[in-house]
Amino acid sequence: xxxxxxxxxxxxxxxxLEQYCGIMLGEKKEYLIISRLRRLLESxxxxxxxxxxxxxxxxxxxxxxxxxxxxxxxxxxFRDDHPFKIFREKLLPELAKVRRPLRIWSxxxxxxxxxxxxxxxxxxxxxxxxxxxxxxVKIIATDISPTSxxxxxxxxxxxxxxxxxxxxxHLKQYF
Length: 175
Hints:
Elements: H1 7-21, H2 30-43, H3 49-56, H4 60-70, H5 81-98, E1 102-106, H6 113-128, E2 137-141, H7 146-154, H8 159-163, H9 168-174
């Protein structure tokens, strides 16, 4: 199937995508739309992007599939070591002094590696600091991609995903 996008279609789709979910496409990102939506157009038997936009305006299932397809789900365990170091060495000791329930929001959690990494960091802190963080700790994880969120909820990962940032020590201890 040939899949070309006119400038007008591109601008209209950018607007709709931002309106539906907040994803903002920059200039010259037509290739993302083509690569991410080609199979969806084929499976839904839609001729082009204009037809897709017309149908998704009245079809929440299709709208969800489009948002899911356009979401970049890049994640790994303990992504960006510097924030996790600050979390372990500065934030957790400060939060432990407050002595009240701790709530952490992992927004855009993708497939769950970040909230699970936070949980591991908290467990390690508690083990190294007995008596600290004895009260309730909850991590709330959200994402606009229903597919990614379902994977995060299940918490089952293929070996390749586990190797992306997960050290052998953590792998043996927590999995």
